[in-house]
Design brief:
0% of the residues are buried. It contains three helices and no strands. By secondary structure, it is mainly α. The protein is elongated and about 200 Å long. Helices cover 95% and strands 0% of the residues.
Amino acid sequence: MLDLRSKISNLEKDLNESKSNLEKTKESLTNTTEKLSSTEKEKGNLGEELNKLKSEKSDVDGKLSEAEKKVSEMESKIAELEPKISEKEKEIASIKADLEPKIAEKEKEIASIKADLEPKIAEKEKEIESLKANIGPKISVKDTEIASLKNDLEVKVNQINELNDKISSFDAQISGVEGAPNVVEQIKDIMKRKGFLSDREFDDLLKH
């Protein structure tokens, strides 16, 4: 009887352990299922990214192909131009070889002309400075003389204007005087001798 109970107890124990293991297995299976679902979702995302990357790679491949085509075209043009460039370089080298001696010769001629002219130019500059030093004071004197002459001229002009005014006045005064022609002649004679006629002299002539 005891053996049977012991066996039943052991079986119950085993059953409980089996149940516990089953629960653990179910929980593990649930976790595994969730992980599988997550993994499949990630796989789907990775698939989308992979497709996107494939599309981008295709675009890049197209652009790369186009760039390679352009590079090939440029290389072809460069290959076509290289002989022409080489020919032009030869022409330039030939022209330089032809011109350099002429340029050197002209430079020598210019240096010789400069060496010949520089002393003459220096001498002329000294002459100009000497003339400036000599002429400067003379110009100053002449400026003073001109200013004086201008002043004298202005005085003379004023005197002439005054004389013209006096003559006009005399003409008006003697127009009715008897013997006016004689008075005029006397006025002219005095003007020739003295250069002027005072009011007193004029009055005296009119009284006569």
